[in-house]
């Protein structure tokens, strides 16, 4: 009986090493994703990009100003690229004065990086824990102005600083 317990424990240990190895591999190589549109122009034109999802495994957290790819909540298979504009605890709103263009307001101040895609107001709200507020450069109908804050579990990863893959 003791040998059986040791063999089961050994198998469980080996399985834990294998699963841990896959997670470590994914941390170093989260994958490549295709952007088929120009929502992130001029910084990221349509093409293939490498993703970094190390924030899931204790790497640096997502910050405003970073480009990400995310799975659109409620739309199976839909993936979008966007810029992070606010993180948990930030207050966000989209407003305009008179006939001026809409402006993104983060923590009571106009954002330094005003998205070109703002077409309608968003009531002031606090970004909840486990979510981020994202908007691309150009209008799409599946960003935080329409869907609200995007859960971190939907974030596939940061678009790496060097967007073009070798050989592209």
Describe this structure in words.
The chain is α+β, with helices and mostly antiparallel strands and 168 residues long. It folds into 2 domains: 1-30; 31-159, Umud Fragment, subunit A, CATH 2.10.109.10. The chain has helices spanning 2-28, 144-147; strands spanning 32-35, 47-52, 67-71, 79-86, 91-95, 103-106, 109-110, 122-126, 131-135, 150-151, 155-159.
Which overall shape is indicated by the principal axes computed on the Cα atoms? elongated
The CATH homologous superfamily of the largest domain is called Umud Fragment, subunit A
What percent of the residues sit in helical stretches (DSSP H or I)? 10-25%
CATH architecture of the largest domain: Ribbon
Poorly predicted runs are 24-29, 163-168
Distance between the termini: 59 Å
Backbone structural class: alpha+beta
The succession of helices and strands, N to C, reads HEEEEEEEEEHEE
Q: Strand share of the residues? A: 25-35%
């Amino acid at each position: 009986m003791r040998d059986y317990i040791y063999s089961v424990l050994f198998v469980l240990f080996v399985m834990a090493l294998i699963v841990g190895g896959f997670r470590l591999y994914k941390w170093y190589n989260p994958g490549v994703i295709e952007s088929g549109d120009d929502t992130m122009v001029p910084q990221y034109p349509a093409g293939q990009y490498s993703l970094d999802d190390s924030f899931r495994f204790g790497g640096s957290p997502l910050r405003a100003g970073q480009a990400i790819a995310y799975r659109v909540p409620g739309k199976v298979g839909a993936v979008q690229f966007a810029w992070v504009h606010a993180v948990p605890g930030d207050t966000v709103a989209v407003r305009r004065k008179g006939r001026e263009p809409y402006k993104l307001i983060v923590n009571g101040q106009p954002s330094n990086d005003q998205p070109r895609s703002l077409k309608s107001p968003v009531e002031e709200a606090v970004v909840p824990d486990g979510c981020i507020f994202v908007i691309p450069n150009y209008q799409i109908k599946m960003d935080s102005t329409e869907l609200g804050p995007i859960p971190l579990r939907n974030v596939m990863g940061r678009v790496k600083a060097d967007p073009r893959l070798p050989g592209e």
